[in-house]
Amino acid sequence: MAKTENILRVMEELKQKTGVPRTLFAACPNSLSVIKASFRAAKRNNSPIYFATTLNQVDCDGGYTGMTQAEFTKILAREAAAVHYTGPYVVAIDHGGPWLKDKQSIERWDTERAMQGVKESYEAAILAGYDLIHVDPTVDIFLPKGQIIDIHVVVKRTVELILHAENFRKSHGLPPISYEVGTEEVHGGLADEKTFDTFLEGLKAGLHEVGLDDIWPCFIVGKVGTDLHTTFFDAEVARKLTAKVRPYGSYIKGHYSDDVDNPEDYPKAGMGAANVGPEFTMNEYEALAELEEEEKKQYAEGKVAQLSHMTDVLWQCVYESGRWKKWLHGDEVGKDLKECTPERQLWLVMTGCRYIWQKPEALVARQVLYDNLNHLGINAEEVVLMRIEHNMDKYYNAFNIVNLNDYLKEI
User: Fold this and answer.
1) I need a surface site. Which of 70, 173, 251, 335 has the fewest CB within 10 A?
2) Beta 49-54 vs 89-96: how paired, if at all?
3) 3-state DSSP call for residue 16?
4) pLDDT (tens digit, 9 = 90+) per residue, 318-347?
């Protein structure tokens, strides 16, 4: 049995014994700080950590973190060892599908090339030791604007990608991995119940046709009310979707669970796991801004020789990257960043920092900031990590998975 299924099995057995439901917490590792904070939080809470990384972040070309799949898993092992975290952690591709990597969409790769690119990413992830792949062929950039992709096409491409991954894994004699399918986005076509049912039935039949009766996704992503701009989890919808997928042996997975108002409702509604990402980028920005204020204070007192200009550098890097344009609202499209409201400018920069943490200018500014404060007895990196960990802790508690590793040791 694959690692993720094993963890889910133990969680289900515990629920039957204790009556306490549990939800896995998945962090989007968009920076080295988030990776470090994740293992520290997992160690402190004595619980697994799940890394859901997109192909924009980590891929054969290095992604915006600068890490390939092989480098990513080595860095995870290093950071786990650094805090002597010995529990299980899940390494997963998030949103692994054609045109979901920005490069493919911007350069308008044709379907064959885009699918082949995703398959090559899968292969690199499998060789690197990933545990789970989110198969998400729910986007087609060549459809007319406003047209939703045919659910039968989604099923066909999902089966094709799973088949490729399984054939590659088996040909290399590697252990079983897990799968996640679907998307929370409207473009995926899984937003209404009828289409959701059609997808499940079609996927079951499609996997049977290619001889993969023994393969079934442990997670199916559900549209449960949360997205990048909303913070309310719809527990009633989640319960309905859970009732649909549990007979298949799957759990509903939530995406965009950042700053959700009611995280404690996830396990109550039967959610298997939930992703959190941009929230931690914002935590990292906030911590750096807090440190910069202290740096300026010390500079005014003559205790710092040279300012880092940390936030100015981050704003400039985000602006020059152009990645903020991806998150503009409809009435903002075509505007310059400086034409947006101050509140929106700050939000776009804070969430956009995940794309530029590894820019040389950002790295240099951070090092200057850290050095300035470290010389004054302030452990600057510790301040950043604690800010991120603080928010991770609330999910460990709300999802009822504190001390879960005590039970997982049995497997």
Assistant:
1) 173
2) parallel
3) helix
4) 999 999 998 999 899 999 999 999 999 999
**Which residue intervals of 90-192 are DSSP H helices?**
102-106, 111-128, 151-171
Among residues 110, 198, 215, the alpha carbon closest in space to that of 164 is found at 215
Residues 6+ apart with CB under 8 A from 46: 87, 402, 403, 404, 405, 406
Q: Name residues whose C-beta falls within 8 Å of residue 398's C-beta, 6 or more positions apart in sequence.
A: 263, 264, 266, 267
Beta bridge partners of residue 172, listed in sequence order: none
Neighbour count for residue 292 (Cβ, 10 Å): 22
Amino acid at the residue 64: Y
Q: pTM of the full predicted structure? A: 0.95
Return the structure tokens found at 346: 């700050």
Contact 199, 190 (CB under 8 A): yes
Structure tokens at 56: 């924009």
How does 160-190 read in b/e, with b if 16+ C-beta sit within 10 Å?
A: bbbbbbbebbeeeeeeebbbbbbbbbeebbb
Q: How far is CA 187 from the centre of its chain?
A: 19
Q: Which residues, including other chains, have CB under 8 Å from residue 270's CB and lie 6 or more apart?
A: 21, 238, 239, 242, 246, 251, 252
Coarse DSSP helix, strand, coil percentages of the chain, rounded to the nearest 5 percent = 55, 10, 35
Q: What is the DSSP string of 305-353?
A: SS---HHHHHHHHHHHH-GGGGG--GGGTT--GGGS-HHHHHHHHHHHG
Euclidean distance between CA atoms 117 and 60, whole angstroms: 10
What whole-number distance in Å separates Cα of residue 65 and Cα of residue 257? Answer: 22
Mean pLDDT of the chain: 95
Q: Which of 258-262, 316-320, 390-394 has the lowest mean pLDDT?
A: 258-262
| Residue 8 contacts residue 385 (beta carbons within 8 Å) | no
Ramachandran class of 185: left when φ > 0, alpha when ψ lies in -120 to 50, beta otherwise: beta
For residue range 178-203, what is the model confidence (pLDDT) as tens digits?
999 987 654 555 657 788 889 999 99
